[in-house]
C-alpha cells in the first residue's frame, strides 16, 4: 500500500516555529513581495473568522482586522521539511516528497516489521513529530491516499482498501481535485459538485468540454493510475553562509559575496572534485523573513565563473536588503572530470587573441588604459551613479 | 632598471556618464529652445529628479529629452542647485 502524510499549512507552521502562540490566533502567510497580494495558508482561528487561503490581502484584513501577517520563511520551511524526511527515512520508510507538507511513503516493505499498515503509519506520524498536526491516509493509489489524508483529522490514520476506494471518493467535494478555479465554476454550473458525479460522466465528454486538465481530474476521480513510489535522492550537505555586519541591498556587494561563497563551497573537501548539478541560494531578509531560490544547471559544472553567471541574476529577485547570504550545493554529479577537447573551441582562440591585444594596449598606453564598466547602483535615478569605470590590469 | 613593485598600486575608478556642460537657451517656461546653437524641434519627454536631499550634495534636476532640428537627439537638464545646463545620456 501507499501512504500519504499531509501537514496542512506547512509553510505557515514552519514560519511560526518558535512562535507557536500565533497558531492559536488569526494569522496568515503574507503575500510574496512582487506577486499578486494574495495571502497564503491561514490558521484555524483565521479560518473560523472567515479568512481563506488565496484571499486578497485587503479583503482578508477587512474580514478579520486582527489578522496577523506572517512573513514567508522558505529557508526555514525547507530545513524543517528536510528534517521531517530524514526522520521518516530513519524509520526505514521510502519517501517521495510531492510538495512541502505532502509526501508519499511505501508501507509494504516495513509492514511486517511494525505490525501492519496502522503500525507503520503510527510510527510515521510519531517521526514527523508533534506540533505539525500531521495526518496519514493509505490506499493502493496515490490520489486515494492523498484524499484519505485530506479527510483525516490531525493525528488520525485513515486506511482505504481498494474495494472501498470508489465509495470513499464519491462523496468528496470537487475541491480535492487539481483543477483551476474556472473549471470548478464550470463544473458547478453543470450541477457537478462531488468527485463521484464527475467520475460518473463519460471520459470523452469530459475531455471535450474541459480539455486535458479536465480529463486528468476525471481520471483521478475514478481513482487515478497505479504508480510506484520514487524515492528521493538525499541532498548533498555542502552549505556556506556569509553574515553581513549591516543589511546589504547593493547588487555589487551581493555579487561579490556570492563569488566568495561559490569559491568556499567549491573548495570544500566533501565535494571530492565532483561537478555541481543543483544549487540553492538563500538569504535572510532584514524584516526577519527569508528568501530562497533553487537552480538546476543545464549541465553540471565545477567552474566558479559558470556558477556565478548562473546564480548572479537570481540576486536581482531579492525583495529586501539581506543580513546574510547562503549557498548550498544540493546535488552533485557522479563524475569528477570530463574529457578534454582535442581541438580548441572557436571562442578560445578569439579569447586568447583578445587577451594578447589588451596586453599590447596596456604596454603601449600605460596602466589604466583598459577598464571595465562595473554596475554599482543600476537602479539609481541619477545616471552617473549607476556605473563605474574601473581600470583593469 | 625596474621600479619597486613592493607597494600596492592604487586603482582609481571614475563615474560613467558624468554630465557635461551644455549651451542651452531656454524660454520663459524653462523649456529649452536651442541646444548647442541648434533649434529644438521637439521635446519628447520631461521629468524631474530630486534625490539625495538629505546629503550636502542634493540633486535637483529638470530633464528634457529633445530632438534637434538636424534630427539628433539630446538629453539636457537644468541643475536647479547650480543654476546651469548640462547634457547627459540616460
Describe this structure as you would to a colleague.
The complex is a heterodimer of chains A (393) and B (90). In chain A, helix 7 (142-151) links the parallel strand 6 and strand 7 (157-159). Chain A is built from 14 helices and 13 strands. In chain A, the strands form 4 sheets. A 5-stranded mixed sheet of chain A has the order 4-5-1-6-7. A 4-stranded antiparallel sheet of chain A has the order 8-11-9-10, sandwiched between helices. In chain A, helix 12 (251-266) crosses helix 13 (304-311). Chain A starts with a strand and ends with a strand. Chain A has helices spanning 10-15, 44-48, 57-63, 74-90, 111-114, 117-128, 142-151, 165-169, 181-189, 195-199, 203-221, 251-266, 304-311, 346-365; strands at residues 2-6, 27-29, 68-70, 94-99, 102-106, 135-139, 157-159, 238-248, 276-285, 290-301, 322-332, 371-375, 387-391. Chain A is α+β, with helices and mostly antiparallel strands and 393 residues long. By secondary structure, chain B is mainly β. Chain B has one domain (20-87). Chain B has strands at residues 14-15, 20-21, 24-26, 32-35, 38-51, 59-68, 73-79, 84-87. Chain B has a 7-stranded antiparallel sheet, with no helix packed on it. The relative contact order of chain B is 0.24. Strand 13 (387-391) of chain A pairs antiparallel with strand 1 (14-15) of chain B, so a sheet runs across the interface.
Amino acid at each position: 500500500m501507499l501512504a500519504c502524510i499531509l501537514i496542512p499549512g506547512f509553510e505557515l507552521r514552519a514560519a511560526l516555529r518558535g512562535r507557536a502562540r500565533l497558531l492559536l490566533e488569526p494569522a496568515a502567510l503574507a503575500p510574496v513581495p512582487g506577486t499578486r497580494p494574495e495571502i497564503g495558508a491561514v490558521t484555524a482561528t483565521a479560518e473560523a473568522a472567515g479568512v481563506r487561503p488565496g484571499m486578497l490581502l485587503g479583503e482578508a484584513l477587512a474580514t478579520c482586522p486582527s489578522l496577523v501577517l506572517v512573513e514567508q520563511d522558505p529557508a526555514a520551511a525547507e530545513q524543517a521539511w528536510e528534517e521531517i524526511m530524514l526522520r521518516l527515512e530513519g524509520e526505514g520508510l521510502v519517501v517521495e516528497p510531492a510538495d512541502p507538507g505532502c509526501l508519499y511513503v511505501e508501507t509494504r516493505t516495513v509492514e511486517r516489521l511494525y505490525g501492519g499498515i496502522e503500525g507503520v503509519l503510527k510510527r510515521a506520524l510519531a517521526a514527523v513529530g508533534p506540533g505539525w498536526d500531521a495526518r496519514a491516509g493509505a490506499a493502493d493509489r496515490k490520489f486515494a491516499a492523498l484524499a484519505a489524508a485530506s479527510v483525516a483529522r490531525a493525528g488520525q490514520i485513515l486506511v482505504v482498501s481498494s474495494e472501498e476506494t470508489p465509495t470513499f471518493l464519491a462523496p468528496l467535494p470537487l475541491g480535492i481535485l487539481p483543477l483551476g478555479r474556472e473549471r470548478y465554476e464550470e463544473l458547478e454550473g453543470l450541477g457537478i459538485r462531488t468527485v463521484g458525479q464527475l467520475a460518473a460522466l463519460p471520459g470523452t465528454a469530459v475531455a471535450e468540454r474541459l480539455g486535458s486538465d479536465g480529463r486528468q481530474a476525471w481520471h483521478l476521480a475514478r481513482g487515478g493510475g497505479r504508480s510506484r513510489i520514487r524515492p528521493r535522492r538525499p541532498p548533498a550537505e555542502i552549505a556556506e553562509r556569509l553574515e553581513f555586519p549591516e543589511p546589504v541591498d547593493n547588487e555589487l556587494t551581493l555579487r561579490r559575496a556570492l563569488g566568495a561563497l561559490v569559491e568556499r563551497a567549491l573548495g570544500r573537501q566533501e565535494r571530492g572534485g565532483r561537478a555541481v548539478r543543483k544549487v540553492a541560494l538563500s538569504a535572510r531578509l532584514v524584516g526577519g523573513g527569508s528568501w530562497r531560490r533553487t537552480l538546476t544547471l543545464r549541465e553540471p559544472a565545477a567552474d566558479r565563473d559558470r556558477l556565478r553567471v548562473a546564480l548572479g541574476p537570481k540576486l536581482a529577485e531579492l525583495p529586501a536588503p539581506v543580513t546574510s547570504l547562503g549557498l548550498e550545493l544540493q546535488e552533485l554529479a557522479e563524475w569528477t572530470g570530463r574529457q578534454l577537447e582535442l581541438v580548441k573551441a572557436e571562442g578560445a582562440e578569439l579569447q586568447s587573441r583578445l587577451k594578447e591585444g589588451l596586453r599590447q594596449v596596456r604596454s603601449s598606453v600605460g596602466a589604466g588604459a583598459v577598464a571595465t564598466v562595473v554596475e554599482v547602483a543600476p537602479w539609481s535615478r541619477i545616471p552617473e551613479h549607476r556605473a563605474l569605470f574601473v581600470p583593469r590590469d | 632598471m625596474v621600479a619597486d613593485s613592493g607597494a600596492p598600486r592604487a586603482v582609481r575608478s571614475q563615474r560613467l556618464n558624468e554630465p557635461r556642460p551644455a549651451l542651452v537657451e531656454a524660454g520663459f517656461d524653462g523649456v529649452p529652445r536651442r541646444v548647442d546653437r541648434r533649434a529644438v524641434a521637439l521635446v519628447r519627454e520631461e521629468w524631474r529628479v530630486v534625490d539625495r536631499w538629505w546629503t550636502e550634495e542634493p540633486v535637483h534636476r529638470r530633464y528634457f529629452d529633445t530632438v534637434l532640428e538636424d534630427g539628433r537627439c539630446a538629453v539636457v537638464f537644468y541643475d536647479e542647485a547650480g543654476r546651469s545646463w548640462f547634457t547627459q545620456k540616460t
